[in-house]
TrEMBL record:
It comes from Alkalicella caledoniensis. Coiled coil: none annotated. GO terms for biological process: phospholipid biosynthetic process. The keyword Magnesium applies. Keywords: ATP-binding, Kinase, Lipid biosynthesis, Lipid metabolism, Magnesium, Metal-binding, Nucleotide-binding, Phospholipid biosynthesis, Phospholipid metabolism, Transferase. The keyword Iron does not apply. One of its GO terms (molecular function) is metal ion binding. It holds the Pfam family DAGK_cat. This is Diacylglycerol kinase family lipid kinase.
């Protein structure tokens, strides 16, 4: 059995991974890594490829792609019965996305040479996962794990826009442009926010985010207090903010200095839910698998990551 199994999304980083993967292969070979790999051919295939690889006995599963690919690979560590391999399988990441927000929390180098060195060093850390229940595109209840950040409201709306346009300008610019255009078009959603079973807000909101990691949106430090292994969800809400206020305060989110603004609330909890009469724009690790109403739980130290 080879030591590593790479799950490669050739469409990530605006399609450039298809070409760069050939370069990475040369680098892996120069480092004499012992590996197999598979390229995905479409959405969600990374999950089934990962499940098969774990069932075959691979112990180090490496996602090569953006945050969406990492999410799909992580979900492949589980099936309907729960975790398919208990202690001994670890996740690695060679980040080939545009946003690349998760690696900023995990301190995994962005360049593939550095990321491969991290795989060789082989230190592992157990991290938490958020468990998200939402409505999928067929309006059925679905559960999915989130590694980094998930939100309903403006962030979901931004992700929809960014995922439907070219990200060729790079992560920072693509998400900044998408955010600015979205703020101009977005109308606040409305719903009930419950934290650990207690209603904390009822009415209009701009965004309700559940954070495991610190960064989203191509480098915005939404949850500077988040610790990825502490067993808690950091909830950040922006309520009753108008467009001008959102635009005025946007630069603060890149530096994490939005925390403390009177309309930005922070809660640390084990459970969060947002219910609404309307379908809420939803993103999970930068992808749009469906809509809110949504509920979140947290599984402490659910998966090991090489970082
Ligand atoms: N072969 C494929 N062709 C087209 N899309 C694919 C393929 N394989 C996976 N996908 C989809 O590509 C999407 C984007 O993947 P990913 O998030 O990893 O890259 P990205 O968008 O470049 O990065 P980031 O999320 O960091 O901005 C995911 O929704 C995934 O399901």
């Amino acid at each position: 059995m080879k030591e590593f199994f790479f799950v490669v999304n050739p469409a990530s980083a605006n399609g450039t991974t298809r070409v760069v993967w050939d370069e990475i292969i040369l680098f892996l070979d120069s480092k004499q890594l012992n590996y197999d790999y598979s390229l995905t051919s479409g959405p969600n295939e990374a999950t089934t490829i990962t499940r098969d690889a774990i069932k075959k006995g691979y112990k180090k599963i490496i996602a090569v792609g953006g945050d969406g690919t990492v999410n799909e690979v992580v979900n492949g560590f589980f099936d309907e019965q729960g975790k398919i391999s208990i202690e001994d399988v670890a996740l690695g990441v060679i980040s080939r996305g545009t946003g690349c927000d998760l690696i900023k929390t995990l301190n995994i180098p962005k360049n593939y040479q550095g990321a491969v060195e991290t795989l060789i060093t082989g230190n592992t850390k157990a991290i938490d996962l958020l468990q998200v229940q939402f409505l999928n595109k067929e309006k059925q209840k679905e559960k999915r794990y989130c590694v980094n950040i998930s939100d309903v409201g403006l962030g979901g709306y931004v992700a929809q826009r960014v995922n439907h346009t070219s990200k060729s300008g790079g992560g920072l610019w693509s998400y900044l442009r998408g955010t600015l255009l979205s703020i101009l078009k977005y109308k606040n959603n409305s719903g009930i926010i419950e934290v650990d079973g207690k209603v904390v807000h009822q009415g209009e909101f701009s965004i309700v985010a559940a954070a495991n990691g610190r960064f989203f949106g191509g480098g915005m430090e939404l949850a500077p207090m988040a610790k990825i292994d502490d067993g808690y969800i950091e909830v950040i809400t922006l309520v009753n903010m108008g467009k001008v206020e959102l635009l005025y305060n946007l630069s603060k989110v890149y530096k994490g200095t939005h925390i403390g603004h009177p309309k930005v609330k922070h809660y640390r909890c084990k459970k969060l839910s947002v219910s609404s009469d309307e379908p809420l724009p939803l993103e999970i690790d930068g992808e749009n698998p469906g809509f809110g109403g949504v509920s979140y739980g947290v599984v402490q130290k659910a998966i090991k990551v090489i970082c």
